[in-house]
Specification:
This protein has 15 helices and eight strands. With 337 residues, it is an alpha/beta fold.
Length: 337
């Protein structure tokens, strides 16, 4: 997989588009394909993604395919589709290409509500791939900052280390450093659950609490993420790396974070449905909290912050009551166990 080979990105949200632009600027032939035909027409005509990255021009090496068949010609397919729409989208595109010799890199973060599966599991089953054909990219990567060339780092997790090293070389450049891991479970769990904790931190912001509160939520949130991840077979050290603590801190504190923003609006007393209806981009944590709440009960893992966020979002519990519940829990030793 040399730099001269092409890469196809399926899903033209802010992160998929950002990665396409960054790779094209490095001289890689990249195609960017939206699942919405009207968006492909707009991007092809204006050479910009006005829906998610308004005003940012596409480099010459970034192309907009005219069909799904053309979009899927590359050896490497990057999937940048929200988990909520992932299975349905894959079911559609798998009819347009033979995936047996392809390698798929997932950018999706979340857990599917109906199956409680991670993105890589959905990709594997829907496209009939082996585990060695799938990798996941995660980490503290705010799209606008990566696009601006601000030094950033991320991690690729894959069981096929040789393939992962090839991807590492392709994606890395002066301001974007890629690390490797074999812990796909840990990387995906960290990427999914950090959005739930970010909603909690946003609620704290909306209630006008301080840094102490957010630091406590982040720290104990990391303990919850670790508990569930360990139960699912992840390496605990993953949660103290880029896809764990790194992504968690970024999402909880960044003004660009969609999930933190949703939580903030709820903390201010706004209705969740109204907030979501006004957003162009998907706040993955809103769906993920339903899945993780169910998963934690199935796995018998205590996740008090997740439980309270779920009750605020889906059972209309008042945010201040949720905070009070967390603060009044029985006293204990600090532990991730």
């Amino acid at each position: 997989m040399k730099k001269r080979k092409s890469i196809s990105i399926i899903g033209a949200g802010s992160w998929g588009t950002t990665l396409a632009i960054v790779l094209a600027r490095q001289g890689i032939e990249v195609s960017l394909y939206s699942l919405f035909s009207s968006q492909n027409v707009q991007m092809s005509r204006q050479r910009k993604n006005q829906l998610f990255l308004k005003g940012v021009a596409f480099p010459p090496r970034l192309s907009i395919p005219s069909s799904e068949e053309e979009a899927l010609k590359s050896e490497v397919i990057v999937i940048a589709i929200p988990v909520k729409f992932l299975r349905r989208s894959l079911h559609k595109i798998k009819k347009r290409s033979d995936f047996s010799s392809k390698f798929v890199l997932s950018l999706s973060k979340g857990i599917e509500v109906s199956s409680l599966e991670r993105p890589s599991q959905i990709i594997k089953s829907e496209l009939n791939l082996s585990s060695s054909q799938i990798a996941v990219l995660s980490g503290p990567t705010i799209a606008r900052e990566v696009l601006a060339g601000i030094p950033s780092a991320a991690i690729i997790a894959c069981q096929n280390l040789k393939k992962a090293q090839e991807l590492q070389k392709v994606l890395s450049h002066a301001n974007f450093r890629i690390y490797l891991s074999r812990d796909i479970v840990g990387v995906e769990i960290g990427g999914a659950l950090k959005n739930i904790i970010a909603i909690a931190c946003g609620i704290a912001d909306g209630l006008r609490f301080g840094t102490n509160t957010k630091a406590a939520l982040l720290t104990r949130g990391l303990a919850e993420i670790s508990r569930l991840g360990i139960k699912l077979g992840a390496d605990v050290s993953t949660f103290f790396g880029l896809s764990g603590l790194g992504d968690l801190a970024t999402t909880c504190f960044s003004s660009y974070s969609r999930n933190r923003f949703v939580g903030e609006q709820i903390g201010k007393g706004r209705d969740i449905k109204k907030v979501l209806s006004e957003m162009k981009m998907v706040a993955e944590g809103v769906e993920s909290v339903r899945a993780v709440y169910r998963l934690s009960r199935r796995m018998k893992v205590d996740m008090p912050i997740t439980r309270e966020v779920y009750k605020v979002l889906y059972q209309r519990k008042l945010p201040r009551q949720a905070v009070a519940t967390l603060m009044q829990r029985p006293l204990k030793l600090e532990s991730i166990r």
